[in-house]
Amino acid sequence: MRQQRLAAILSLDVVGFSRMMQSDSPRLLTALNLIFRKIVTPAVTAHNGRVVKLLGDGALIEFSSAIEALNCAVAIQKTLRSPDLPFTYDEPIRLRAGIHAGDVVVEAEDVFGDAVNIAARIQAAAEPGGVLLSRIVRDLAGSHISTRLRREGAHSFKGIEQPIEVLSVDFSDPGVKEQRRRISETQEIKFCTTKDKVRLAWTVNGDGPPIVKAPNWISHLQLDWQGPGFAPITSSISEKYRLVRFDARGNGLSDWEVDEISFDRFVDDMEAVFDATKVDRAPILAFSQGCAIAAAFAVRHPERVSALVMIGGFTIGRALRGGKSDKKRAEAYRAMMTAGWEDDYPSLRDLLAQTIIPGASEEDRRLYAEHMRDMITPENLGRFRDVVDYIDITELLPEVSAPTLVAHCRDDRMHPLKEGQRLAAALPKARFVSYDSPNHLVPENDPAWPLLERDVHNFLKEYV
Predict the structure, then answer these.
(1) d(CA 32, CA 41)
(2) Where do runs of H (alpha helix) occur along 94-141?
(3) What gap in Å lies between CA 348 and CA 340, rounded to an integer?
(4) CB 272 within 8 A of CB 200
(5) Which region among 82-86, 111-115, 186-190, 301-305 has the lowest average model confidence (pLDDT)?
(6) pTM of the entire structure?
(7) Which CATH class is domain 174-463?
(8) What pLDDT, in 10s, does the model give residues 337-381?
(9) H-run or E-run covering 103
(10) Does the domain at residues 2-169 carry the CATH identifier 3.30.70.1230?
């Protein structure tokens, strides 16, 4: 008997199902069966839902309450974000979740109608590990929502006449952000002087064995605490270790008026900070071109480096990679950055933030874009690009004796995965890990973040 009723529909889909099935279908299906039996079904029961059907690569679930549908989706995704689930495939299994509410037609045990179709379309647009919901679900849930949501604008979906306003679930903790803001305001900033008389700003966060962070292309000891890229790893490391950070010459709180900005001087600056902080030997944490600086320092002072953690690194700068578009892209980046860096409306810096942290919220990306202007002048930015785009440490890497963790996101928009692979292949004692993410710097909202955090800590505890 057919009947019509109002329902909230949760659509779940396994990310990369077809690709993984081609690799090892029996193991994948076993893992999926456990996930649906031990995570999805109990969550649905706890939130008074009904599993309409389980598909090979997903599920369709009905709820009589919009808030229950949302809470169920959040509970499932939070559980799957755990880095150490006992039932996983060769890579973490991620689900996309989409929720919509509306009239459905019920026939026997199945449901049909626009609400089902729209939920499926919304699910397909969700980020891996994310939850995307229509505005109507938010409105129906009313004041009962405790989950943080962020606006994602109006989306047009295939087969749906009118654009639909959607929101996504923000899995970051607002209390943690406030704690980091307080740290940025109360940490003690100190200064040291390099051999060519440049004043460098440095600080220490946390207690325990020391770890030194290599300089990345731009930074700011205070503002980095508020950004979605560096704050997660900085706070995580400083909970267990004494993390030494410093701003490279020409940016942040270090001297901006400097005679020389060069790769060798960046390595000299690391030496000055090791000396000023009285660190005899420690692991180095490095991001992006900081990985090249860390490698060069490890070759110059192998006795001072116990291990290296390289995230989003590369061996050869963009202008030297040999691709037809690489040099043009490097020139375009340089021209874009220097020409529009100080604009009141940060359209160019917005584009850069979208490249570095596409998985962060729009609010966090905009904040990062605003902060960039306070980190460096356009003139120094151009000088930085002239160094970074022409880095080549190919000949140095075989001389690095320190054990190294090389981590890279598979869809990194700043430096592609092959650059991380090339880096790891050339290092004698490298361990390579990759993550299903488009981010260059991994924000907490990214499902890859718990995996990166786990891998970095597991590696460090071997060498600290």
Answers:
(1) 12
(2) 114-125, 135-141
(3) 6
(4) yes
(5) 82-86
(6) 0.85
(7) alpha beta
(8) 767 788 777 677 888 899 999 988 888 888 898 898 899 998 998
(9) strand 95-107
(10) yes
The CA–CA distances, whole Å, from 170 to 75, 78, 141, 162, 177 equal: 13, 11, 16, 26, 13
Place of tokens 């570095």: 356
Q: The sheet that has 404-409: what strands, in order across it?
A: 190-193, 199-205, 242-246, 210-213, 282-287, 305-311, 404-409, 430-435
Q: What DSSP state is assigned to residue 184?
A: H
CA dist., res. 126 & res. 94, Å (int): 11
Task: Give me the phi and psi of 419, to 5 degrees please.
Answer: -70, -40
Say if residues 164 and 135 touch (Cβ distance below 8 Å): yes
Backbone angles phi, psi at 129, to 5 degrees: 80, 5
* 53 token code pair: 């059907």
For tokens 């057919």, the residue is 2
Matching residue, tokens 């179709």: 117
User: Could you tell me the residue ranges of all domains in the chain?
Assistant: 2-169, 174-463
CA-nearest of 456, 454, 442 to 171 is 442
Q: How many CB atoms lie within 10 A of CB 327?
A: 16
